[in-house]
Amino acid sequence: MTETETKAYDVVVLGAGPVGENVADRTRAAGLTTAVVEGELVGGECSYWACMPSKALLRPVIARADARRVPGLSQSVQGPLDASAVLAHRDYYTSNWRDDGQVGWLDSIGADLYRGHGRLTGPRTVTVTGPDGGDRTLTARHAVAVCTGSRAALPGLPGLDEVRPWTSREATSSKNVPGRLIVVGGGVVATEMATVWQALGSKVTMLVRGKGLLARMEPFAGELVAEALTEAGADVRTGTSVKSVTRENGTLVAVTDTGDRVEADEILFATGRAPRTDDLGLETIGLEPGSWLDVDDSLRVTGHDWLYAVGDVNQRALLTHQGKYQARIAGAAIAARATGETLLAQPWGAHAATADHAAVPQVVFTDPEAAAVGLSLAEAEQAGHRVKAVDVDLSTVAGAGLYADGYKGRARMVVDVEDEILRGVTLVGPGVGELIHSATIAVAGRVPIGRLWHAVPSYPTISEVWLRLLESYRDA
């Protein structure tokens, strides 16, 4: 195809991260011709700068922490981690930042890849500026899906650009362990990266504007994670804002709102995300550049019957697994509309992303892990549900004691006392990330409390916490 040619497809997907890949997979499976446009690496943020590298970095950290709690093994793992081996493990899981394998997968499903920056230049029209500077025009008979994700949002501090701060990308891809690291923020990226770099040998100082860590979870989740980070040697300061950042003779200096000077080698700002929609040509179709895109439950953009926004860009749930879930919904909806099928509008149907509202799971891979699905107690009350919180100390569960000496953890289920279903579940403790799917099924499926009694947990596993929670609810 020459630079001046226009090529038509049934579907054009902007962004080849996990979300865009899944949209393409579903539309190709339905027999629709599909083009995928990507300006960076096929596989996106998750594969190279988020989920995969962060978990590869965290796995040795968590495995060592777990081993240190097991009699007969603890004395064998008291030394430092081999940082070079951990970083090499991370590099392996990012394929050394090469996307050959993911490109091969796109080829295998029959999607056409266009490398370059894609912009909307009108309804159903995308112009791709390639690495050579040439433009190609793609038109979509049925749908354009915006799957461009989000980027780190940096605060407007004077001189911040000059100090070259880390974002999540630098934090997951650094080739060296900084001697001292400041982490600004208290959310998922902040806590996970503080866990990694403290364990690899950095002296970590966390500067958290809010009252505690993991503010979107139950308060006890952040409290237990902060306690563990402090025990590991991190300096966790809450209620603290950064007013300025400079480099003085090579040393980074952050000044807080209380006038404290904190010195470090690097500083990570993990203070939120912004949509990658600022240079997508949204203005050509009457939308605001740089904005989050409002969608219905089939992920179609409000007011545009051909445009879909899937994953982070719609701000419904900034999580890879939820984005992939949305992609499956969007792909099914695009295919149904393209072939004239009736869109199934009922909740939990093939074309409705209802779980984005009620049953969004998340795991924070710190030590201890924190996992949650659905609503917290405060969120349930704010939503007008009549609820009751049921708490269990995980150390009372036989499987937890076998998992680790001195096991510390807590579980909470938020019960709707009128419908007798679960509105939310939160688990904090070593290994609890593997329990959250059972909670997700209970919340998403609106499984009645009476029926949960008959889902018998195996003994002795940590999952026996379900029995303890149900007993506590019954006996309260």
Number of strands: 21
Give the DSSP E fraction (strand runs of 2 or more residues): 25-35%
> What is the domain tally?
3
The CATH class of the largest domain is identified as Alpha Beta
Global structural class: alpha/beta
From the 3D coordinates, which CATH architecture of the largest domain would you assign? Answer: 3-Layer(bba) Sandwich
Q: Unreliable stretches, pLDDT < 50, 5 or more residues?
A: none
Q: Give the name of the CATH superfamily of the largest domain.
A: FAD/NAD(P)-binding domain
Q: Termini separation (Å)?
A: 71 Å
| 3D shape | globular
The mean pLDDT is 96
What is the CA-atom radius of gyration, in angstroms?
A: 24 Å
Condensed summary:
This protein has 476 residues and is an alpha/beta fold.
Task: Give a description of the structure.
The structure is a single chain. The chain is of the alpha/beta class. The protein contains 15 helices and 21 strands. It has three domains: 172 residues, FAD/NAD(P)-binding domain (3-Layer(bba) Sandwich), CATH 3.50.50.60; 112 residues, FAD/NAD(P)-binding domain, CATH 3.50.50; 108 residues, Enolase-like, domain 1. 31% of the residues lie in helices and 25% in strands. The strands form five sheets. Strands 1, 2, 3, 4, 5, 6 and 16 form a seven-stranded mixed sheet that branches. It has a five-stranded antiparallel sheet with strand order 17-18-21-20-19, sandwiched between helices. β20 and β21 form a beta hairpin. The longest helix has 19 residues. It is globular and about 65 Å long. The chain starts with 5 loop residues before the first strand and ends with a helix. The model has no long low-confidence stretch (mean pLDDT 96).
